Amino acid sequence: MASSFQYLLLLLLLFASSSSSSAKLSFRPKALVLPVTKDDSTLQYITHIHQRTPLVPLNLVLDLGGQNLWVDCEQHYTSSTYRPARCNSAVCSAADFWHCAQCFEPPRPGCTNNTCTLLADNPLDATIAVSDVGQDLVSVQSTNGFYPGQNVSVSRFVFGCAPNYLLRQLADGASGMAGLGRTKISAPSQFSSAFSFPRKFAICLASHSKGVVFFGDGPYVLLPDVDAAKFLIYTPLILNPVSTASIPREGKPSSEYFIGVKSIKIEDKVVPNINKNLLSINKEGFGGTKISTLNPFTVLESSIFKAVTEAFISARNYTRVVGVAPFEACFSSNGIGSTRLGPAVPTIELVLQNDASWSIFGANSVVQVKDDVMCLGVVNGGAKPRTAIVIGGFQLENHLVQFDLASSRLGFSPLLFWRRTTCANFNFTSAAGTAAVLRDDLNAEFENKMSFSVIE
Ligand SMILES: *[C@@H]1O[C@H](CO)[C@@H](O)[C@H](O)[C@H]1NC(C)=O
Ligand SMILES: *[C@@H]1O[C@H](CO)[C@@H](O)[C@H](O)[C@H]1NC(C)=O
Ligand SMILES: *[C@@H]1O[C@H](CO)[C@@H](O)[C@H](O)[C@H]1NC(C)=O
Ligand SMILES: *[C@@H]1O[C@H](CO)[C@@H](O)[C@H](O)[C@H]1NC(C)=O
After folding, report:
1. Which site in 40, 105, 121, 260 is 20 to 30 Å from 244, CA atoms measured?
2. Ligand 1 pocket residues where CB is under 6 Å
3. pTM of the entire structure?
């Protein structure tokens, strides 16, 4: 009797505590959504988030393999919710901190005493900067996979508070970079742990208008009602044990996403003369294939570049013409028809581990550079690049690409044109209006801001 009474008491206590916490956490999102646009002059992919108190909209360059999110703290950083990460705190170890810093100027975000630092990386300029580890509120739109819902926030999002000079080479108006790489403090890791959703995220880059990044699991629905998550084909993600940062840190693995390309086919024929050794990652971390949103076009090591471009041009006997930078493999486009999948050129196929095959059609393989000239949209990476194949933005566009971190696998959809949709078709019309109206009388802004602390 006594034990069942205790049990009942325990249940009551549990119920009481869960109902009080659910009153505070009135809404737990299943997934989040961020818009991504492409900057016309730099071809960088830019994502848009809100940070600080009061909220400030920020444009951040999307860096798929980046270790963290960093922003310029030297100019216009004002926020009542900024907190520096105290040396030796759990946040510092999660951030893989560099050292403990002092500041010899009047204190401000980015320059405070007893604060740990991280190395913020700008691979576009091959520059890194020792930056204070900071925490501040970040606000993002939630989603049910169909359209955006109410805004949610992480009150202590961990980021690098960087100096202004780290913005060199970034698109106009960008104030930092959003790293989505394999680290504890990358945006996908922090969002998943803040809202307890699966450690998955997906990118869907559009060529001219607004694409989308989803954090959390699908559905990932694009108009007219196409759940792109249903078409994913999977291949393992490979860990490169050697750092690939602008200044590599000894003993640290790469935060970038590698996959295993086993061979390349053009019009169903294996491209000959590709040195297989280049396709795997060696002890020094060289070789292999990674995916990058910082390279606008796929980059191939020079011998692979030569083999692929020659096979592509000879497959249909194209008449080669002089290259148009940054491209070398250009040809007359007279007589090349167009299809739903882009210009009718030979299909390139990346044969991957698990025998998954990534087909690249005209929309993702060639660029029309003049009225009568087309080029293969890949660039020559020279003789000894760190990574043999870098799959760049143009080849990723209009494919949904999911990174499943818990299962260490990558899912990619075929070109969405097959399904009569594109990455520009997420319905960004928010349904949150009603929720916001209902809460107008309360201190709605405050109520909606959930105070999940991310690490601790
Ligand atoms: C920070 O530490 C330095 C060195 O110990 C000291 O000179 C400076 O006054 C401190 N700044 C503040 C704001 O405490
Ligand atoms: C939610 O955030 C978006 C920007 O991400 C903003 O445009 C919108 O007004 C916000 N909605 C509400 C209800 O605060
Ligand atoms: C390509 O052109 C060469 C000579 O210009 C010719 O011998 C060959 O048969 C052609 N191949 C195809 C596939 O058209
Ligand atoms: C987009 O989503 C909104 C709800 O947020 C909905 O009212 C609207 O009908 C949707 N648009 C289309 C074209 O389905």
Report:
1. 40
2. 102-104, 107, 113
3. 0.89
**Closest residue CA from atom 8 of ligand 1:** 104
Residue nearest atom 12 of ligand 4, based on CA coordinates: 427
Nearest 5 degrees, angle CA 337-CA 339-CA 345?
A: 60
In order, the DSSP letters of 57-90 are EEEEEEETT-SSEEEE-SSS---TT-EEPBTTSH
Q: Where are the domains of the chain?
A: 2-196+426-450, 228-423
Question: Does the beta carbon of 427 lie inside 6 Å of ligand 4?
Answer: yes
pLDDT at 261 over 60: yes
Instruction: From the options 2.40.70.10, 3.40.50.300, 3.30.360.10, 3.10.290.10, give the CATH code of 2-196+426-450.
Output: 2.40.70.10
Ligand 2 centroid – CA 55 distance (Å): 10
Matching CATH topology for 2-196+426-450 and 228-423?
A: yes
What would the pLDDT profile of 375-420 be if each residue is shown by its tens digit?
Answer: 999 999 999 999 999 999 999 999 999 999 999 999 999 999 999 9
Q: What is the dotted CATH code of the domain comprising 228-423? A: 2.40.70.10
- The Cα–Cα gap between 330 and 47 comes to 32
CA 406 from centroid of its chain's CA atoms: 16
